[in-house]
Design a protein that fits this description.
Blueprint lengths: L4 H8 L6 H10 L1 H29 L1 H6 L1 H21 L3 H7 L6 H14 L11 H14 L20
Helix pairs in contact: 2-3, 3-5, 3-8, 7-8
Length: 162
């Protein structure tokens, strides 16, 4: 981990790290996990908004007929905006209105709910590109890294180039 003498010496000394070490840093340190989660959350929030807008544009008549689907699309756009606000530091505003986002468990349940809410299924049983896109986004939203010390990558020794 980053607190070990070997890990901090390699990172702080400015020595070039191998690709394996860079992956290990990203997956096994708190800074690395935070950067991965920040990127994932930004991508997922943007994709939630994009998918919602695409569904509004590509299927407006179907959404007007199916009011529940319309509400679901609007919620997904709103959830995407909330995710982006979390990443861009609007936490004070969010915590006043959505207090559960202030605790790790509340955020975990929020992302799990959003990840399952966005999943689309083609009613005809075909392969819908938007359905596949929604499953990829939903899977990313449900990704929550566990304890960094338990990752299999953390068991590998750090190496340096040269």
């Amino acid at each position: 981990s980053a607190s070990s003498p070997q890990g901090s010496r390699l990172v702080n000394a400015g020595l070039p790290m191998t690709l394996c070490d860079q992956i290990k840093w990203a997956c096994c340190t708190i800074k690395g996990l935070k950067s991965i989660k920040k990127v994932f959350t930004s991508v997922v929030g943007t994709c939630f908004i994009t998918l919602g807008v695409l569904l509004l544009v590509l299927n407006p008549v179907g959404l007007l007929v199916n009011f529940v689907a319309f509400i679901r699309v609007m919620w997904n756009i709103f959830f995407g905006v909330l995710m982006l606000l979390l990443q861009f530091g609007k936490t004070e505003w969010l915590l006043i209105r959505f207090g559960f986002l202030g605790h790790w468990a509340g955020r975990a349940f929020f992302f799990f709910f959003c990840g399952t809410n966005i999943l689309l299924v083609d009613p005809d049983g075909g392969s819908c590109p938007l359905c596949f896109f929604s499953w990829v986004i939903g899977g990313m939203a449900m990704y929550l890294p566990a304890d960094p010390g338990r990752s299999p990558l953390c068991l590998l020794p750090l190496t340096r180039m040269g």
